[in-house]
Amino acid sequence: MFASFAAFGPHDVKEYFEGLGVPLKVERGRRVFPVSDRAGDIVFALAREVDSSGCRTVHARVENVYADPNGGFTVETAVGTRRFDRVVIATGGMSYPRTGSTGDGYRFARALGHTVTPLSPSLVPVESDMPLCAGCMGLTLKNIALTVREDGKPKPVYSGFGEMLFTHFGTSGPLILSASAVMRKPGASYEAVIDLKPALDVATLDRRIVSDLEKYRNRDLENSLGGLLPQKLIKPFVDLTGIDPTKKSNSVTRAERAVIVETMKALRIPVKGLRPIEEAVVTSGGVSVKELDPKTMESKLVPGLYFAGEIIDVDGYTGGYNLQIAWSTGHAAGIAAASAGNNDI
């Protein structure tokens, strides 16, 4: 898909929307948003552009797409049948079905002879049976490091820095959503490892803990960690260490302190599985890219048929990558389909 991305990359997307009257801003991580922080501004700008271009919009569910023997396509909708010379299928994946992404596009693609690779949720919250997660429900951890390990592999399969959220079923938030993209191998077991203090090495963190324990030497341990941990996390964290939470800080042993340091640097959360695809940000899998021209997104199997966006077997981490995939492939498909002739698209 590199040809599509090169032809309409991030800079081109910014220029395009600013040209439609949507001021943009760049925030941390080079993420681009409307200055208004309203996603609706993007939607309305696209709708205005469609209207001003002379396109006709039909609001009806497409039920079937057929390739006609002599070329062109017949499209059946709930309000009638239309014939087109070219068709662009950009129906999204199976995520967020309430928005219309019900997976119909995959059915159309298969019926037209295309291979659809296995579908699974990506950028999706992660489930865990660990009591700490439910106990900290609603707590957001910021500026933490996350590593994901797969059983049997010596190296991590994911590493990142940012923020995450504890939920009643496990974990969510930007880091977790990105990490979920690598946790989809059938039968594999994964573990999420959180470094709560990535800016401090083990020795520095130990000195900090010694200082805090001395400062609050007459307090219970669970009342001495407020300078290092969010209040909601302290009790579940201390329980996890196995140390008596009512033990006086001045009685904590060197060995117990080592356990505190180790747990802060490597809070291990077993992964039970991923949330349902209906809760995923995007769908992994889709129309095989081997069957598409990467410059035009036209089918190599059916002339005049194009695919764009999430329906294609391409997905990325959270942070705008999947939107860029949609913009780039949509631009390629639209330009190619419109340039192929003056008939109906």
Describe what this molecule looks like in 3D.
The protein has helices spanning 2-7, 10-19, 40-52, 104-111, 131-135, 174-180, 202-215, 231-241, 254-265, 321-339, and strands at 24-27, 31-34, 62-67, 73-77, 80-84, 87-89, 120-122, 126-127, 140-150, 158-166, 170-172, 190-195, 267-270, 273-274, 282-284, 305-307. The chain has 345 residues and is an alpha+beta fold. It has three domains: 2-121 and 281-339, FAD/NAD(P)-binding domain (3-Layer(bba) Sandwich); 124-196 and 272-277, Elongation Factor Tu (Ef-tu), domain 3 (Beta Barrel), CATH 2.40.30; 202-267, Orthogonal Bundle (Helicase, Ruva Protein, domain 3). It has a seven-stranded antiparallel beta sheet. The chain has a three-stranded antiparallel beta sheet with strand order 3-4-5. The protein is elongated, with a radius of gyration of 26 Å. The relative contact order is 0.18.
Write the layout of secondary structure elements.
Elements: H1 2-7, H2 10-19, E1 24-27, E2 31-34, H3 40-52, E3 62-67, E4 73-77, E5 80-84, E6 87-89, H4 104-111, E7 120-122, E8 126-127, H5 131-135, E9 140-150, E10 158-166, E11 170-172, H6 174-180, E12 190-195, H7 202-215, H8 231-241, H9 254-265, E13 267-270, E14 273-274, E15 282-284, E16 305-307, H10 321-339
Parallel strand pairs: 6-16
Antiparallel strand pairs: 1-2, 3-4, 4-5, 7-15, 8-11, 8-14, 9-10, 9-12, 10-11, 12-13
Short description:
Helix content is 30%, strand content 21%. The chain has helices at 2-7, 10-19, 40-52, 104-111, 131-135, 174-180, 202-215, 231-241, 254-265, 321-339, and strands at 24-27, 31-34, 62-67, 73-77, 80-84, 87-89, 120-122, 126-127, 140-150, 158-166, 170-172, 190-195, 267-270, 273-274, 282-284, 305-307.
